[in-house]
Amino acid sequence: EKLTGVTINKFAELNLIGFYELAAVFGGAEVCVKPWPGGDGIAPNGNLSDPNSGVELKPGYQHLSAEQTLAFVRSRDSLPGGDLDRTARQQAVLDYVLWKLKNEGALSDVSELSPLLTVAKEYLQTSAGWNLLQFAGQMNALTGQNFKLSTLPITGQEDISGIGDVNTVDVQYIQQTVQKAFST
After folding, report:
1. 147 CB contacts (<8 Å, ≥6 apart)?
2. What CA–CA distances, in Å, run from 164 to 15, 82, 155, 168?
3. Neighbour count for residue 86 (Cβ, 10 Å)
4. 3-class DSSP state for residue 69?
5. Which of 80, 89, 153, 175 is deepest in the core (most CB within 10 A)?
């Protein structure tokens, strides 16, 4: 709230174990993997790979198992933007999940929604009093016109003793960007 200048009334946090469990309930994810210019991270066999996350993918559209989905969203060492590109991958999978929930009827079918809520109860931390079942009913209103994922820009990185590399930001620019996003 101090960084963005916006009051946060609800939040949800999912760790990587929970992400895997939700991916398992969904049967994995559909992704489009694009190689980037310069080819850093391209293995000799033509696949995008990151040995630290275990991801080994080929360029193009593909269905990932739960294990591959987890490796896909954990990958950062082979991505040119590191953590920021990893965030973009996590957002892409979240966008797919929201699309699948809406387009395959899981939000209106209790038998499909129940396993998701079971996993969410175990692995998802939310702000106090947030009724996820009620929120699931409201998710039908989310469309490409009124839902957007974005990553705020950094100004660089700094090595802080005892902590490691951290991203640095322009606080005033972040606040202006967030205020503009929430006011339009």
Report:
1. 98
2. 21, 14, 17, 12
3. 19
4. helix
5. 89
Phi, psi (rounded to 5 degrees) for 116: -65, -45
d(CA 122, CA 1): 26
For residue 82, give the nearest of 177, 170, 165 by alpha carbon: 165
| Residue that the structure tokens 């469990």 belong to | 21
| Residues forming beta bridges with residue 33, ordered by sequence position | 60
Calculate the average pLDDT of the chain: 83
Alpha carbons 143 and 98: distance in angstroms, whole number: 9
Say if residues 97 and 22 touch (Cβ distance below 8 Å). yes
8: its two tokens: 């946060």
Residue 97: is its pLDDT beyond 60?
yes
d(CA 112, CA 139): 15
Residue 106's contacts (CB-CB under 8 Å, 6 or more residues apart) are: 100, 112, 113, 116
Confidence of residue 184 (pLDDT cuts 50, 70, 90): low
Distance of alpha carbon 34 from the chain centroid: 17
3-state secondary structure (DSSP) of residue 169:
coil
pLDDT tens digits for range 114-123 = 888 888 889 9
